[in-house]
Fold each of these.
Amino acid sequence: MTGNVFTVAIVTADGNWMWCRPLLLMAVVMSGSVAIVTAHAETLAVGASQRYKMPSEAAAVAMDGDTIAIDSGEYVDCAVWKADRLTITGIGPKVVIRNKSCNGKGLFIVDGNDITIRNLTLLEARGPNLNGAGIRAEGFNLKIDNVRILDSQNGILAAGVPGSAIEINNSAFTDDGNCKNPSGCGHGIYIGHIKMVRITNSRFFETKEGHHIKSRALRTEVIGNRIRDGSAGTASYSIDVPNGGSLIVANNTIEKGPNSTNKGAVIVIGAEGVTQPTVDLIIRANKFTNDNEAETVFVRNMTASPATLTGNTFKGKVEALTGEGQVQ
């Protein structure tokens, strides 16, 4: 046994012993000999004084269930995470991954399932197609906690994976987004067709041109966040749910700044055609400020399902709702 990983002794054809790390519980039969092994997850340490100097080195050897612990420091690197059930975590106050692109997609490409990423800063994600992301989510289920994504063409860009859920908590997205990509805009967060996305206790600030949050999920929950353009932000909508689907927006502080590229609306539902069931549209206890002289619509509901607005407060020129629904 090496570290906290069980290895296995296998009898080879010539009668010698060979030690290896197993992928799974398995039986190896060689020359009539059988070795039964149990796989245990390993912690892969990354840092200047560690075995793995860069996150990409750990990603290349990581196996299902491993923890990747990244020491404080700045890494000009990107990584493709292929194993399942990984925990990728920063150790210490400042772990920064920046300014490199894997497969033209961004800093972290998450192909594995049931991944957790926490305590990291991802900076300057760029791609040759102008669509680079801090995190490119392509696997099934992803949890993000205490992650900062700054100055990137997309903060998080998530592919459509039916049945998948993404949870984002206690994270920050600053100065992300752009609309220079010929095929479409980048955003603070852009979620494809998945089962659910839940965004809690997070901050969106000074998004550029695209939306702070764009989601095509069957259910989108945005709870307890701060979503602000500020004086330099040029975001379009604060929340865009273009194909319908259930939407819960509660207890957020939202501000539309003077340089927004779309001053007409804040939360928009169904702008690109309603293609999925829209059961719940609940907008409650949010505080919204419009810093423009022109009036803006807080919720533009373009679906046939009624939206329910309760306990929201407004500052500036605001029309609470257009489309189906009621304001209480």
Amino acid sequence: MKDPNEKLEILVVDDEADSREALAELLLKEGYAVVCAENGRLALDCLTGMTPALIILDLMMPVMSGWEFLAQQKRDPRVRSVPVVVVTGSGLVRDVEGDAVVHKPIDFRSLLKVVKENCLQP
């Protein structure tokens, strides 16, 4: 049984260090636990040791893009149901299988609303 005081964990995946840090700081202030990865490959590695309540995912990244990450995540029965909020500066989101899309530049108030609406609850 999960501890009711345990913080919900969010995985933030973005290759831009400033974006990762800003998102992590915002989420930490809101009481979430945060793990960050700079590309899809590292994010998949993170998922071997955790099942986050939500993934915030950039699409355009080196090593492994957000699209490639989503395809791999959906193949893994342990984490396929984890909601994904796609954060992108690109207009190329028509074939994204995320649960929500937030466009850059990010309106943090809107992002927090989407996070609260989509987080898996314990």
Amino acid sequence: MADYTLDTQLIHAGEPRPRIEGAVSTPIFCSANFESQNESSYHDLRYIRLNNTPNHIVLHEKLAAVEKGEAGLVTSSGMAAICTTLLTVLGGGGHLLAQNCLYGGTHSLVTEDLPELGINTTFLDIHKPASWEAALHPETKGFYVESMTNPTVQVGELTSVVEFCKKHGLISIIDNTFATPFNFRPLEHGFDLVVHSATKYLNGHSDIVAGAVIGSQEMVDKILHRLNHLGATLDPHACFLFQRGMKTLALRMERQNSNALTLARFLASRDEVTGVNYPGLESHPDHQRASSLFRGFGGVLSFELRGGVESAQRLIEQVKLPVNAPSLGGVETLITQPCRSSHSGVPREERLKIGITDSLVRVAVGIEHPDDLVADFKQALGPN
């Protein structure tokens, strides 16, 4: 499938050949175990927890193809993918470098849980490569970043991260959930491992929780080995929905890129809005970097309103199309206050340092018609 475009690979890569009993869609294999073929290794046995049913294998191959990796792996959630990857890379008391604005679940993992295992993290300003070397420890093993930060939608010095890791022998890990392989393929830029919360754009329909890891065969095999012991396996029914969702990723992302840019431009024109975070806007400080790296700027934006928390809450109550719910990446537009959802577990003082105020509003734009979305926000904001 290497000669085909991403749009075509999303549909055809990894699909069984020949088709199973002629089925155009891969069937759901509701079998916990499979007949032995005299395997020599425990991890080669065909068993759901070992992530090697036909439903898993299709996804592994499709993920590897669309992210341009040697191997892919699915997990029971995005946090399962992140946790298993970090435990594999940092096991034995390793030290992690990480950007200072992370998804709340990841932040809590590296600040609360991993230290109990002797794994510590130093947070860095992703825009200041000159400051990174001072944070190195003898036991530093990895550098963890996000392609776009949640929810401030910043784009850091990603190329510098790769160069820094190669210079110092570190494993570079990037959460590519916000950008998706449609907009950005980190492995092509030199990153070692890519993780996703596949709950979001890869599935795209707000009906499963899943995760993914993509990288070299050697690294993914090590992560798979640990995953098999931790048991964070994706159910075959969820695998089926994940696989089905991926086939429309290109169509959905094209609309969500466009919708988010349209809505960001509208919000930026309003007097009630004091600032919009979206790298597609020319006024965004990371616009040039994002333009050089990404095919599109994603479907998430955030903004501040005059009037602070009360104005934010009033807007969320007044809009009709967006659903006030956590997560992102589905076909429907979602709206939320990160301080009450994705980053509610991050201490307020730390949130404020990275720009996540109590009044910040995040919008994960869906695939509705852009005119309807703009009209809805216009009526919610009132006359300009």
